Model the fold of this input.
Amino acid sequence: MSSFFNDKDSQQSNDFYNPNVLINLGPSHPAMHGTLRVMCRINGETIEDAACEIGYLHRAIEKLGEDKTYHQWMVYTDRLNYCSALNNNIAYAMAVENIMNITPTERCQYIRVICMELSRIIDHIICVAINALDLGAMTVFWLLYHWREEAYTMIESMCGMRLTTTYARIGGMSYDLPDNFSERLWKFCEEFPKALDEVEGLLTSNRIWIDRTKGVGVITKEDALKFSLTGPTLRASGIDHDLRRDRPYYMYPDLDFDVVVGSNGDVYDRYLVRLEEMKQSVRILQQCNKRIPNGPLWVDDKRVHIPDKLEVYTKMEVLIHHFKIFMEGIDVPKGEAFTCVEGPNGELGFYIVSRGGPKAWRMRVKSPSFMLFQGFEASIKGGKIPDAVAHLGSVNIIAGELDR
Amino acid sequence: MSTNSVSPAAFLVANQAKVVARLTDKYSTERKLEFDKLNEPVLWAKNVDDINLLVKMFMLDENIKVDFLSDLTAYDNEDGEDGDKRFVLVYQLYSLELHTRIRLKCLVGLTEQANTITDLFLGANWLEREVYDMYGITFKKHPNLRRILMDERFSGFPLRKEYPIKQRQPFNDNIRLHMGANPLQVNTHTPQEEK
Done:
């Protein structure tokens, strides 16, 4: 017994009423959305201090960016934010195009906007549905996941993949839209908002939902700015910032949509912002569907244009060209650019430093989740553990993007 | 925010011109001002101490109004293309009001210490930790400078060019739990202590 008390840790192990208890959340806990881990020091049920531990899903994607050719690296972008792979594909293609000074064709730009808005809807569906599921509202999950499935089926018809799409190519897209796509998108835009209305009816004025989310996980305006949060989380805190409007790219200046801004920065506001953003995305989809022009999908640029398969199999020169693009890679001139798009979770940026040649010198992924998780660490202090779970669900941190 | 009469794109172009004029006017006399492929200004700080000064000045400058840190990263300058020092620190600054971006760059030597900007942007905390983790650049007065993505037992800095891409470092899973910035005494049982 005496040896036990002489142990260097005896002070803690002996003190049953020690107010400082450590609790470990994650990295493999169903409420921790992927491989996130938080060490909390709790007093009763209140979190007094928290430390996030990340890196469990680190796959050296940035290092691989310096080792693979620009074209090969496209598949790795799918694995960043795997809930909205299309958005990453397109943002990356855009980043490389910016360095090569290529502007995609109008049809390509419209397709890209459609893809980005579809993936935004999917991402927001995941966030709202899982957040509600974490808090015990299962019906919402079933309602919304049906539409996520529909969206994925549409994406499958576009590029043959569901989750890891690799749809974009530098200078174009891998495939054109399928024949019946317009009708399918039309039907989706007609019926999906009805499901949103239903969800709104279930949650927005639901007493239990309000009790669990209002005033929970508050991120003030100042905190959101200090921690460089972006996306719906920043807008829910009351800051009017949306790259689609502020720094317009592709067809966004011509499209009519509203930027959704909340005021309190709590879980409830983030839910409302996401819900309304889905409706705005549907609006954008409808306009794109109406306006999408016929015309070439690919830019007329020899450096990047991947030749048609039929030509590759029949013409010698085209075969060589095809071979060179895939075996040697695209020659990107010296220079650098920082390209940001408004991803579903916030500002998704690719900072590429090129020193010429087919491989990047530095491939930096600025992921929104990284900043969001840092803000999360600071703002769960003082709250309760179930509130932390609600908070985590509402900021939608994707581990693939967080750890890269 | 932009008024209804001016389109966001035109607003952005006007502000960009204003910021570039201000940068050429006031900041580029002793420093190198470049433009990237998107025609966005890239300003090279004179040294590491100059970074903090510049960021502070940008935040106070009425014509630049930087209030947001988009990103903080670094890259290896092993081939000496950008200067004679080993690394380049990169700060992506943004103005929420003007919608303009400024990139701030600085050369850092292999043994040189940079200054933290966590006093200006709290969000820089993890970003600086990542730079330290990946390149081994240390930041003076950083509140909690330790590895973030890699394991604590990892040796070497993976994004340095000399680190071989396939050099793996397997570890067993029994690591001490830690509490980050404000460590407390914990009584965790680790097998290493047993023998």
Notes: Chain A has 18 helices and eight strands. Strands of chain A lie at 21-25, 37-43, 46-53, 168-169, 172-173, 335-342, 347-354, 362-366. Chain A touches chain B through 61 residues (CB under 8 Å).
